[in-house]
Amino acid sequence: MKKIKYICLLVFTISFAACDDRLEIDPPFAEDAESFFNTQEDYERALIGAYDLLQTSYLNNWIGEIASDNAIAGGESVNDSRGLHQIDEMTHGGVNDELRNVLRFNYAGITRVNYMFEFRDKIDFEGKDVLYAEAAFLRAYYYFQLVKYFGDIPLIVDRRLGIEEAVSIDRTPKEQVYAQIEADLQVASEVLEWTNSVKGRITKGAALALLGKVYLYQDKFTEAATTLDRVINEGPYSTITTTTSEEYTALFSVEQEGNLESVFEIQYTGVEGGSYGCLVCLEGNAALGFQGIRQYEGPIYGDGNSYNLPTEDLYNAFDPSDIRRDGTVLDIEAFIAEQENPADIKYVIGGGGHTGYYNNKYIKRLDELGAGDNDLTSPVNYRVIRYPDVLLMAAEAHNRKPSANDGLAQDYLNQVRNRVGLSAINVTGQALTEAIWEERRFELSGEGHRFFDLVRTGQASESIEGFQVGKNELFPIPQIEIDLVGGTWEQNPNYN
Amino acid sequence: MKHKLLILLFLLSGYLALGQNTITGKVTDQASGQGLPGVNIFKVGTSEGAVTDLDGNFKIQAGADDILRFSFIGYKSKEIQVNGRSVIDVNLEEDVTSLSEVVVVGYGTTTKKELTGAISNVSGDAIEERKVPRMDQALQGAVSGVNITTNSASPGGSANINIRGISTNGDNSPLIIVDGVIFPDEGLNSLNPNDIASIDIIKDATAGIYGVRAANGVVIIETKKGKLNSKPTIQFDGYYGVQETSRKLDLLNAREYAILKNEAFAANNQAVPFANTELGEGTDWQDQVFQQAPMQSYNLSVSGGSEKTSYNVGGSYFGQQGIVGDDKANFERYNARLNFVTEVFPKVKLTNTLLYSQERSSGISEGVIGSVLFNAVNAYPTEPVRVDGRFSYLNNVSDIINPVAQIQNTFNDAETNKIVGKQELTYTINDNFEASARIGYNYAIVDVKVFNPLVWYGPGKFANSALNENLDPRIINIGELEVEQGASVFESRESYFNYLAEGFVNYKNTFGDVHNVKGTVGFSFTEESSRILNGTGFNIPNNSLDLADISANKAVGGYLNNVGSSQGLDRLNSVFLRAEYDYSKRYLISGIIRRDGSTKFGPNNRFGYFGSVSGAWVISDEEFFNISAVDFAKLRVSFGVVGNDQISSYAYRANLGGEATYVFNDALLQGAAIGRAANPDLKWEETRQTNIGLDLSLFNNFDFGINYFLKDTKDLLFAPDVSAVLGTYGAGGLAPIVNNGDVRNQGVEFDLNYRATLGKDVNLTLGYNFTYLQNEVTRTAEGIDFIPGAGFSVGGGIATRFEEGFPIGYFNGYKTNGIWQTAEEIASSDVVQPGAQPGDLRFVDVNGDGEINFSNNSDKTQIGSPIPDFTMGFNFSLSAYGFDLSGNIYAALGQEIVRNYERQSPFANQMAYNLNRWTGPGSTNEYPRLTTEGTQNTQFSDFYVEDGSYVRLNNVQIGYTLPVKWSETIKSSKVRFYIAANNAVTLTRYMGYTPDVGSSGVLGNGVDLGRYPVAKILMGGINLQF
């Protein structure tokens, strides 16, 4: 009797102790976040992860236009991306999926960069400074997106946030965020080269141009002028002259990716398929299919979702002789009438609105289709900063800086105009400022800059119907995001 | 000397023999008069005994004054004094009160009488009677406290088992144990309902014997075993049935559609689409996709036993086709069972269980936007199915495709082969100790193949895989290369291997005749592992299903796409102890403690202790108790702590599972990024449950059991939305799993069973069970007001929430108060509703600020809950003169459903209720106007929430058993024919396909995305026994 008890006890203790050791297991064939960064390759791979989120900037292409006087939301119905329709009508509030995605995607990018910085000192290898310069640029880009949309946002640098902290973190004043952005871009611009043999890598030019833009958004015109001058004077860029609308439109084709006007492009490819279930997973540019012509059957263009439709206001703003009008805006009926068999061409008007115009810079074309679902997988790069943008920013900076240099400003402005066959402008002072602003619209519409330019230059309320001063300069923080940090953030002014 | 000894021995034996006589007799069943094999016969006060043979005959040596005790499971024991007789025939009465029923409690058994916990029992016969494809469906309405909701009624579809409410935002499925082997709940389809001998469901904290995995309750399934000393019995059961949809939605016909669309377009100042509205009925797309479909099942088994071995072996086939999708939706299952128990050495018993199953299934897209039924409901009736010899394109709606074409283009097959087995050795050391050691395993291989031909549903359709209607493949550019993307085939193989090794010792002893002590101590080690490998091959020649195999791919270089693999490994190491004591079976107390070490959790929280204390008082055994109507009365109390560890593996640490893909030099490069964020302090959910119960047996034929339970679950495990600043929303990123929030379930449940013999050959049983349940989230994480759940796909936004003070997954939206009738009414109202026009829904200003706020949540409130207040089941069976009638009715009352399947596309078809839309002042105060213009009417409001209460006749059956003298002519001991109907009647006010809208995600409960309707089945069958 006793023996049995002892045997039981013995068997027990042995099995017990032996088996507890067997609980010390690691996930099979899986890399672990804490034990990463052991080789140069690990660092390079982490950097690719940080680049990945750039591709979510298709949202900027939409919101920057739809919020402005350039475009309406469009789509299948007003309930199709309701958030975009609200932004279109300036009725957006704390419930907005698109704005929430802007917040989520850019913080995902920031977190991936910060993860790299957290392990910066683990090993050393040649080229590490370049790698980190690119990473710093990416962090600056993501933070700039956020500060542009939302103003004050939590600034997290060089570390990952723990889940405890994520429910108590505060918003950081935007001045501090801008300071970090500038610091990151300065590092990037010092370390990086003007050219990189690898298409798609960040260059010194991209860093300086973005830094110039960041200065401009803060009305730091002197710094902006100096910085942008370097891009113009030292950089490998030059204007490309186009003589027809088709040639101008072709500047946005796959073929002309990385051309002489290309300062910073977000890279896309059509080789990988995608689905609506995960837009953040896409390797193609979702903007083009969304902006395509609804159920279109005919030459040149592919069918799409009729989002982000240019307004008549934009179309009419152009001088009819400006090749950029038809290069930028597709007048669908006019286009069909010019074709061989107009009656065979079909398309459908979406319930979300119709203007008769489509974004001709970023639109699904038959010769640029990606893998299925090809509404989502366009291979066309998003030109975030083009050389004409740099010239116009530099012109504005020189025109608006305390000791204005209107001569140089005119020169930059006219470089942009000359290359599309338009005459030079010789005005100065405020008239020149306005000419530059107007030129920005003609040159850059359809690319997601307009709304932020209007806000930055104080023109939003006069140009955008429903725009409320003191409110709509910033987008509201999605209410759910406020809730998720414990309700401690104050909503942006006048959104409650 | 030797002689003397022999003589002494002889004398002694002679002396002994003098007092002993050989007594023979036969034990029979009182009702049928048939002999009962395997009845235990003991001489009271000794350990001497005998067992009846196959015919019920026995032989035993006993003295003239000895008392013999006859006992047999399921029968009332009898004690008979020999009184000098040499032949004693005994008939045993079936135990109607079932107090002696054996209940499996985990690593041991007890009887209903001695039970201290809250355990429900369902017999195999009750399962079999219901004629369901899947065993858990037969539990619906069978016992109290167990709620079954359906995820999909399609062939091979799944259901959810919830024991005593939804206690977590994460995984609510109970621990399922088949013959001692852990069985994943998603694998329940592989189990043949006919193989089941009994199901015991541990509902209270006495499930603590299973520790960290027992918080959602434990379902213990035993498969059929043979009986010792019984003749081989061959049993054949088969049925064949025809299924059809229990419901179709009431949609607009072509004429109604044209009129309403014209009205909607005109309201938005758009050209009306139909010049002529006299278009008749048009196409009924539902008729095009629904059809009658067969369901059939055949079982053959042999069971029996010799003196030392009993066996039960069998094989079966089950086949079910879908009521949508022709032969594209199909489920077939083959089962084989080899169970035997044998005494390998004296006192050493080997128990062998071996279950093999093969499942073959194919299905169509269901339950999501883009599914076949979604398309059938939204396709417009003015379009014929075919145009110009091809399927019509439905050009006016971009995201809706021809559902008939969709079915034709669907090709998928899955095959699961599975072996579940257990080998157990039980050594009876002596009268007090018994030691058991067992190995259980579960090995499954799942092969899936999906063929995606080149298809063209019309211009602009997202589902197109071809470039054009000629089915030319798309061309993609990889660098300079142009690559064709033809038809593709996806194949995957998943293999799962789980095993457990357990050893335990059971002890029992009685001291001083009244002090009964029982103990169980043991260990358990479990490992669960998986391997998954998959890939897609492109350019299958000829767009042909015949060549749909990766081996046939003609992709450049034979490259596979989307190649993936994954491995899983988890372990659980446990020890447990149970001690029981009772005084005269009158006062019972039991304690359980279990220590679990689980690899689901990190070193910070790897080990946990769980357990319970329970006690019972059999009041009816007290001397003072003399209520004659009450045969038995027992009060039970239990309290304990159990855990839930059902989360993905290694969730406590951050992995690099994120997608990190970017384009350099026009080529994709893969990097690394964090997938799930880490939470090193992750621990199990903990449920504390108190149960107070009372069991009564009345008037010899009523059984009544009632329980009150209070179940607090804290530190819920799930991955809620987290702040964007955590950075987890990149591709492949996952929010961390956290312990967050508390939930309380409390309720009252009771079971009432009545069993009566109304006359010779007339038997009646009635069963009623009732569950009242209150579910409330008692805490959300600090700073978080609510966790958003399922989306509202009609108008966007969130429909369900996890929020403190409300039931889990309650519906949150706008309240409405009729329809705005006139512009004056809008203008003079105290409440400003932006954009309101006559005919729009009139929302309620909940926060009283004088304005309806659409851009924030301040006017939203509770407008429903998916959790029923009451569920109940009613079971009946009546047999008389060879005829039998039985049935089951289930009711769930007090829950709501979100109507979430209507598509707001201008040309999509609509439900017929829109005929009652607002057309002018006074026309209706219920249904808003129709317009293609954007309105706030599609905001999530109570307009989209319907009463989901329902009552369903789950099963009704009429059978006839041939008189024995007829069946004997074919040498059969039993021949029974029957016809049965499943789901014949459903009473509900809900407009959708089915009110049984379960969801595998808790916050999706009651959100109806166009749920596959449950099938009505009419079947006929036969039972044969030889």
UniProtKB/TrEMBL annotation, chain A:
RagB/SusD domain ranges (all copies)? 350-467
Print the keywords alphabetically.
Cell outer membrane, Membrane, Signal, TPR repeat
* Residues in SusD-like N-terminal domain copies: 34-216
Per its UniProt record, what CDD domains does this chain match?
SusD
Per-repeat ranges for TPR? 205-238
Q: Would the keyword Signal be found if you checked this record's keyword annotation? A: yes
Q: Which domain of life is it from?
A: Bacteria
Q: Does the keyword Signal apply?
A: yes
Where is the protein situated, by its record's location annotation? Cell outer membrane
Signal peptide boundaries: 1-17
The family this protein is said to belong to: Belongs to the SusD family.
Q: What is this protein called?
A: Membrane protein
Source species, please? Answer: Marivirga lumbricoides
Automatic annotation (TrEMBL), chain B:
Tell me where in this chain the TonB-dependent receptor plug domain is found. 112-218
Q: InterPro entries from the xrefs?
A: Beta-barrel_TonB (IPR000531), Beta-barrel_TonB_sf (IPR036942), CarboxyPept-like_regulatory (IPR008969), Plug_dom (IPR012910), Plug_dom_sf (IPR037066), TonB-dep_OMP_SusC/RagA (IPR023996), TonB-dep_rcpt-like (IPR039426)
Ranges for the TonB-dependent receptor-like beta-barrel domain?
A: 388-890
Q: Which SUPFAM superfamilies match?
A: Carboxypeptidase regulatory domain-like, Porins
* Location (main, coarse): membrane
The organism's place on the tree of life at top rank? Bacteria
Location of the protein in the cell = Cell outer membrane
Span of the secretion signal?
1-19
Keywords assigned by UniProt, alphabetized: Cell outer membrane, Membrane, Receptor, Signal, TonB box, Transmembrane, Transmembrane beta strand, Transport
Membrane topology qualifier: Multi-pass membrane protein
Which family is this sequence assigned to?
Answer: Belongs to the TonB-dependent receptor family.
Q: Which NCBIfam families match?
A: OMP_RagA_SusC
Q: What is this protein called?
A: SusC/RagA family TonB-linked outer membrane protein
Q: What is the lineage of its organism?
A: Bacteria, Pseudomonadati, Bacteroidota, Cytophagia, Cytophagales
